[in-house]
Amino acid sequence: MQLHSGSSRPVISPDVPELTVKQSDTLVLRCQGNGPVRWQREDRPRSLVREEHRDGEVSTIRVEHVQQPHRGRYTCLEERSAETSSIHVYVKDPKNAFRVAIITDIMAGSDAPAYIPCLATDPNLTDLRLERCDGRPLPAGMRYTASTATGMAIADVRLAYEGCYVCMATLNGKPVHSAQYKLSVRPGKRDARGGKTILCSFYASWSKRTTLGITLAQFFHVRSFPSYSSDLRLVRLKVSESGVYTFTASNADVTIHQTFEVHVISKPEIVSYDGPVDGQVRCVAEGYPTPQITWFYCDQPYVRCSNVLNATQEEEDVITVTMTNPPFGKGAVESRLNITKSNYPTLECVASAEGEIVYTLFSISERTVPHELFTPLLIGFSSAAAILCLILFILAYKYMQKPKYQIQWKVIEGIHGNNYVYIDPTQLPYDHQWEFPRDKLRFGKTLGSGAFGKVVEATAYGMSKADTVMTVAVKMLKPSAHATEKEALMSELKVLSYLGNHINIVNLLGACTVGGPTLVITEYCCFGDLLNFLRRKRDSFCCSRLGEDYIRLALGVLNGYMTMRPSYTRAKSSYCGEVLQEDGLALDTEDLLSFSYQVAKGMDFLASKNCIHRDLAARNILLTQGRVAKICDFGLARDITTDSNYVVKGNARLPVKWMSPESIFECVYTFESDVWSYGILLWEIFSLGSSPYPGMPVDSKFYKMIKEGYRMDSPEFSPNEMYEIMQSCWDAKPFKRPCFGKIVEMIEQQISDSTKHVCHLWPHTHTHTHTATGMSTTGRDGL
């Protein structure tokens, strides 16, 4: 077994940070990860489809006759983990120390960075620097970083930086220089009022330079150079649309960006005000730009003081604080005024920005303030009472919404039209002959765990007679189980004992109901559930029939069911010694027919006992030695709150994709609704464990499609005859669906036509009376 760390990065070969390749040579880069990987170029919008060859966890780039466009940083991305590794490739050009420039006109916004793409073809360049074309000193305050890989990056461009620039360096002791670049600077900030519309237009064109020595005839088909334009229309601007906008133009060789800022001017507004309290008033305003607050006194009541000629503007006793001032969006400012001119009856707070004004008026008459402890105490008691009520309500709601454990199988007492009367399982009798001594059980690993309990593998000593050892499955509740869950497990025990044994259901072997928690002992199925078995076998599935040298196990081994009586049934010879180790064998169509046939037989048995399953699905079918399929109720060992197959509908979680229309929309469960679920189970079997209705979430559209008669297409590996059975199971009218007895006959016909070499390993049974514990059971060794 090969283990990989989940966080390891992909490995690039050659394992170096930089790679230099001579022009016209061959470039080979190889990347290997723990999953599928692919190559990316940071300066290429398109993937390297032509040069890349992907083979599972390995991706290789091979480029013949490397040229300057192949220079740059190559990044290998592992798709599952998103981990990356990179390598920078230089393409060495003996004639040019810098890559031949395609674009020499550089446009940058004010206060934004600018990039001059003087890219080195040789990493051995030294003393890389930026100079003006005319030799003058660089503009005052210009800051830049130089890199042979990415060129020159100028920070915080200003209008004074406009001009012609050239990159200089030293290579092998000789001075070298790049092409000349013209830097143009445009204002990067755009202001617009909220509700208005602005239009931003961008134009980009490119041309391919012709290298000296290439004849014009080679390019006679080029008639014009491409030119593109793009418009951005911002209609009825909102403050939330303020921000940095970037226009990007790119082709296979280069990518350029043009960035600008949009600031939306919003009318100022006064969002809160208080006072007068303790001789002070407070006013808070917000807007863009951040408003300015001024205060005015006047001696006229309820008028705007700022419009009165003899009004007094207060500036001395004002405390103004900017609360927020984001680069984009509204800023907020708070202003407090200590009232010193109490002889004026009116005070006005004015907030202004960009010519817009809002105001609020205060009447200068001191408010009556309650005791300083009254309000905090009132708020505290009220908050505590509200929180306590909320907690009690949440706890009560959680308790009411908590799913209750109950057995899915329902036994019908009588049918009155469309109404079914079910037997109360708590009223069913329990035969204490099923009791098995607790001290003769040795528990092993947990097979499944749910919200209410778990199923544990165990070894039972003396199950049939004193010297026998048998592997069994034991159902038990968690220690925190309530009385209702304990009663539900006891009801499940009574239903299983009532049904009796059948080869295609998980049979009851015994129980422990006294002297401790209730334990239900059932057959152990070594291959787990059918759903995961099909998925495990998907890669080894063979559509053709198996040859004569294959011995089929348990294909219709027992017809009907076995009545419960104080006996023990076993194969004539040692079963464990004869059974084939089938889990290592491939799966074929005959196996799928066998599973379908066996489940139909088991459901026919349940129907004969007036029992409805209500949750028939591949996850609730178990497989044991001989690929014998057994129907079970896995509710105890499954947490439906975390199982995506169970969808919230109303106040319950239901397996909606397996349910019939009448069960979904009318909450009606019948034999016919089990037939519908059996059709979905057939689709699971012949799709090798795929989820039904693939790609369709359970939402209003799904319910509408089911009502309108939508049905799934035939699964990939289904014979036509089996798909016809599925369609008949999905008839919109319940009573037109075939009964399980009819389904058994239809599948038997297919088996008789297709299977020529079937060996029944259990053609006969005999009984052996159990006398050691007084317990009665019916079954087979090894199950």
Automatic annotation (TrEMBL):
Q: Which residues bind ATP?
A: 448-455, 475, 523-529, 619
Q: Which InterPro entries match?
A: Ig-like_dom (IPR007110), Ig-like_dom_sf (IPR036179), Ig-like_fold (IPR013783), Ig_sub (IPR003599), Kinase-like_dom_sf (IPR011009), Prot_kinase_dom (IPR000719), Protein_kinase_ATP_BS (IPR017441), RTK (IPR050122)
If you read the UniProt record, what top EC class would you report for this enzyme, in one word? Answer: transferase
Q: What SUPFAM superfamilies is this protein classified in?
A: Immunoglobulin, Protein kinase-like (PK-like)
GO cellular component assignments: plasma membrane; receptor complex
A Pfam family annotated for this chain is: PK_Tyr_Ser-Thr
- EC code: 2.7.10.1
- Source organism, top-level taxon: Eukaryota
User: Which stretches make up the Ig-like domain?
Assistant: 10-88, 260-365
Main localization is membrane
Q: Which GO terms describe its molecular function?
A: ATP binding; cytokine binding; growth factor binding; metal ion binding; transmembrane receptor protein tyrosine kinase activity
Q: Which family does it belong to?
A: Belongs to the protein kinase superfamily. Tyr protein kinase family. CSF-1/PDGF receptor subfamily.
- Protein name per its UniProtKB record: receptor protein-tyrosine kinase
What is the phylogenetic placement of the source species in the record? Eukaryota, Metazoa, Chordata, Craniata, Vertebrata
